Amino acid sequence: MGEFNLKAFRKANGINQQELAEYLGIGQGFVSQMERGDRPIPKPILEKIMGNPKWTIVIDTIENNGEINIQAESPKKAGMIPLVPFEAVAGPGTMVFDDEQVIDYYEVREFKGADFLIRVKGDSMSPKYVGGDLVACKVVKDVLFFQWGRVYVVYTKSQGVMIKKVEPAQDDANIVCVSENTKYSSFEVPKEDIAEVALVIGSISLE
Predict the structure, then answer these.
(1) Mean pLDDT of all residues in 25-47
(2) pLDDT tens digits for 4-15?
(3) Distances (CA, A) of 50 to 27, 55, 59, 68, 69
(4) Does residue 46 carry a pLDDT above 90?
(5) Which of 15, 80, 108, 163 could pair covalently with 75 via S-S, beta carbons 3.0-4.6 A apart?
(6) pLDDT digit string, tens, across residues 134-188
């Protein structure tokens, strides 16, 4: 049998290193070392992986010389929404996330069409959203078009990531970012300073 590609298996099944480590009852560092080839995969671990009915593994010894192929639907195709850290959004083109950036995956039917979940920080959007709440976001391709009065996750080159209600400015070249918490002042942001935008389409409040 050919060598088992642990990293390819994990990615194909849409699980991160920590999730695999918890399932196997080992440390994440152990998983990382096995993926890099720094240590061999023990037989009991390989057997436990292959014994999970949720993971589909096909061994074809004729067509691929014993390589192990994984046939599994990715979380995105399965309708799962990735939860990503606030920092993962902070960069042009980063509203498409790889497995290493994802904290967890959730299935929330009410958030159909959402591209990712992010956890609210601070109290600037209180009482609408408070720190710790999860908001579901849909990436907007055209950063120059906004639905006024809606809440967005906005990544700007100068100020980083923020969650704000967006209103029109007197100058069409700018937008006004509004906090729900009245102790925070509204401010204008030049549209040319905006790198990425996602519309907030729902939220989950935590006690």
Answers:
(1) 84
(2) 678 877 877 788
(3) 19, 7, 11, 11, 12
(4) no
(5) 80
(6) 999 999 887 778 999 999 999 998 988 999 999 999 999 999 999 999 999 999 9
Q: Is 91 exposed, middle or buried, given 0-12, 13-18 or 19+ CB atoms closer than 10 A?
A: middle
Phi then psi dihedrals of residue 63, to 5 deg: -80, -25
Nearest CA-CA partner of 153 in 184, 183, 181, 129: 129
Hey, which residues does 161 pair with through a beta bridge?
155
- Rounded to 5°, the CA angle 123-90-163 comes to 30
CA distance 26 to 127: 41
Q: What is the pLDDT of residues 62-116, one digit of tens each?
A: 444 444 444 444 445 456 888 888 888 875 556 777 767 788 888 888 888 899 9
DSSP calls for the chain: -PPP-HHHHHHHTT--HHHHHHHHTS-HHHHHHHHHTSS---HHHHHHHHT-TTS-EEE-TTTSTTPEEE----TTTTT-EEEE-GGGGSSTT-SS--GGG--EEE--GGGTT--EEEE--SSTTTTTS-TT-EEEEEEES-TT---TT-EEEEEETTTEEEEEEEEE-SSTTEEEEE-SSTTS--EEEEGGGEEEEEEEEEEE---
The pair of three-digit structure tokens given for residue 133, joined into one six-digit string: 């709440």
AA identity, residue 69: N
The neighbouring-strand residues paired with 168 are 175
